[in-house]
Design a protein that fits this description.
Length: 116
């Protein structure tokens, strides 16, 4: 993960210890569910509660760039797939079950410029 200053943050380093949010200077506890570390957010950056419809509309307009490394005939290639949020789980499942050959290098959220 990266913060605003593009400095790498090693979540594993923090384990399940308390960390501080630079935005609000309040303590945040990292939690773990099924082996995945997460932070629960209750409000947006302006302090307002999340609105389900707004989040779903935002997600519908976003897509992900999934970079897959493949080796073919001794040469290494990087494939950039552009996947909509609604198809991301299906795409990742195809990688997991071997339909797509290669290794995930990066998944990046792409937000269309027309979002305000």
């Amino acid at each position: 993960m990266k913060n605003k200053n593009d400095k790498n943050i090693n979540v594993i380093k923090f384990s399940l210890k308390n960390v501080y949010s630079k935005k609000s200077e309040q303590k945040i506890k990292l939690k773990n569910f099924n082996g995945f570390v997460y932070i629960k957010e209750e409000k947006d950056l302006n302090g307002n509660p999340f609105v389900k419809e707004n989040l779903l509309e935002y997600a519908g307009k976003c897509r992900y760039t999934v970079r897959i490394m493949r080796e073919i005939d001794g040469k290494v290639f990087l494939y950039n797939y552009f996947v909509y949020q609604t198809e991301l789980a299906v795409f990742l499942n195809k990688i997991e079950n071997g339909t797509f050959d290669g290794k995930i290098i990066e998944i990046e959220n792409y937000i269309p410029e027309d979002l305000a």
